[in-house]
Amino acid sequence: MRVAVIGGGPGGLYAAALLKRLDPAREITVWERNAPDDTFGFGVVLSDETLGGIEHADPAVHRALQAEFVRWDAIDVVHRGRRLTSGGHGFAALGRRRLLAVLHERCRALGVELRFRAEAPSAAELAAAYDLVVAADGVHSATREAHRAAFRPQVTSHRCRYIWLAADFAFDAFRFEIAETGHGAMQLHGYPFAADASTVIVEMREEVWRAAGFDRLDPYESTERCAKIFAEALGGRPLRGNNSLWTTFRTVVNDRWSHGNTVLLGDAAHTAHFSIGSGTKLAVEDALALAAALREQPDLPAALTAYETERRPVIASVQRAARASLTWFEELGTYLDQPPRQFAFNLLTRSRRITHDNLRLRDPAFVTAVEREAGREDGTPPMFTPFRLRGLTLRNRVVVSPMDLYSAEDGTPGDFHLVHLGARALGGAGLVMTEMVCVSPEGRITPGCTGLYAPEHEGAWRRITEFVHTSSPGTAIGVQLGHSGRKGSTRLMWEGIDQPLPYGNWQVSAASPLPYHPGVSQVPHALDAAGLAEIRRQFTAAARRAAHAGFDLLELHCAHGYLLSGFLSPLTNHRTDAYGGELDARLRYPLEVFDAVRSVWPDDRPMTVRISATDWAEGGTEVADAVAIARAFTAHGADAIDVSTGQVVPDERPDYGRSYQTPYADRIRNTLGVPVIAVGAISSWDDVNSLILAGRADLCALARPHLYDPHWTLHAAADQNYQGPAAPWPPPYRAGSRRPPTGRADAARPRLTLN
């Protein structure tokens, strides 16, 4: 096999070395346009996991690297004169130039041909002349651009400017320092990479960078200015650059990583923000996976498929964490007024990869200090602290999220709803929410949806609320009121979600006559003044019945493409009257409905609003709009905003992943200072504790975990050895409050081995 490697960075060099070591008969050539000792950037951080892979694949490289590493385990967060240290993290770094020298030496020893100061032939030429072309040519990959139609790259530029610099001394920890200037917040990321040297990255929002005049400074002047701003962190010492220029981070994603016999590796295939680790780490891991796939698979196409299959989910997870981290730093200004320890905890857990429980294992004293600063009692996890909304005090921060059950008869909830909601109330959650309860027969999603539009509905719901209040004292139950809009008159979910009924359809209505699925869904009737007034009346009538039925909280459903959500999104509201156009006008009708409901809902009972903070579609609602929507509802008296996303248009492209919707709740809470409910793939009590303690959410709503385990909250308490008042076991269930034994644990372990 003849292999061409484009790019002599760590990923390309390590791929070349591995491929040659695994098969010495391979003819491998590396093209690098720079000189051997040219390098950009300074230090490289590698994880223990990556080092383990290197040790297994090439002990010689591992030994050479081990001799060079600087190791430390602490992170310092410095903000407003306070330096807080968290330990137990574990880092290993070395100079990028030294890493390249080790890889150069290894490649030469194995017989890899290294061509420096040489531009590689075109991608097409190499593909024709070689059996395999490894494109490790970086974020600006010419190979990727030459085959753009095949790789289908998406490159996203972000909102901060940053510059790579170095200091001629070693920090004693990974240091994050915040400087609040007259132009805005700036941050320093610093870490040692040698006994006498550290990498220093200075980062700030684009508008801060311009206001501070960095756009008018040359590289030397920028470096001097950064040293003055962070003089305390640097001990008054200077910074130095290395062809260092201000740049904007770009996230690279490709639909495919291979085309014919050409494969992308490292930054050419994907990038992840430097604040969660090194792109070098990912490139080295790519090289390990590619070499393994070529060894294990019967032919090249199978190997390239296996390589991508193995690495793509790993990279997707890393990129989700990286986006969360870079967004945190972009929105740094919203966190600056947090208490010092909460700020540090928030920073450390920003990517969702370090969590409350994980950080407690690393540094229990640090987490305890954060909790005490927040007023938590020792031994009480954050999720088991009370929270007050208007006249309602919730005993803990767990919400059973609304879940459509499609099991009603003519809008009337029955035994299934009693058992479902009653079981979750007995399971310990602070607040149990109904599914979307519809305000009219025509406002139902399906024939199986519940309602509050008839007298018999009120009595059926009262039966459920009385059970909750009597059998699970201290548990609150809330009702979510909504109208299906253009997404109504459809089949039960398991019979065909969002598909029209085969017969018995009713006329649906919406802000504009736009079907949900063009050519499939019913074309809705665009509501006129009389229709708007009638639906507003239906909401108030349902709210009165909800109050009489004994609900503790009412949530207005303005999300997921249902009627009120349809007014908010520019993708579904094309009106030209007073209810369409700019966001203020699109908000008008949902706010009218909110005001009407609030006027009849008891004053001491809270009202929340669920919104879709993004449509996940071009031209739709975005996070800035969501902040404006939340601000408007809060000004009208909403006690909390329940922050969901999407389901507004069928061609959405959600960025699914663990806790993927929580950054939107975080943004609203910390921009506006209003209570929020976070939802969206929050799957563990550790996630809940992390979000609450970091100040990203006030309540956490979980759906699927409560389907899997109705006693999810009580089991979370048992897992954390919590036995306080926020999670009481119902008396008939107390015998089950300890995990049952699962097998013998008394067998003696062998003590001696005899030959």
Automatic annotation (TrEMBL):
SUPFAM superfamilies: FAD/NAD(P)-binding domain, FMN-linked oxidoreductases
InterPro entries the record matches: Aldolase_TIM, FAD-bd, FAD/NAD-bd_sf, OxRdtase_FMN_N, YqjM-like
Protein origin, superkingdom: Bacteria
CDD domains recorded: OYE_YqiM_FMN
Residue ranges, annotated region (Disordered): 723-755
Domain FAD-binding: 2-320
Domain (NADH:flavin oxidoreductase/NADH oxidase N-terminal): residue spans on this chain: 383-718
One Pfam family in the UniProt entry: Oxidored_FMN
Gene3D superfamilies to which the protein is assigned, alphabetical: 3.30.9.20, Aldolase class I, FAD/NAD(P)-binding domain
The protein, known as: Bifunctional salicylyl-CoA 5-hydroxylase/oxidoreductase
Source lineage: Bacteria, Bacillati, Actinomycetota, Actinomycetes, Kitasatosporales
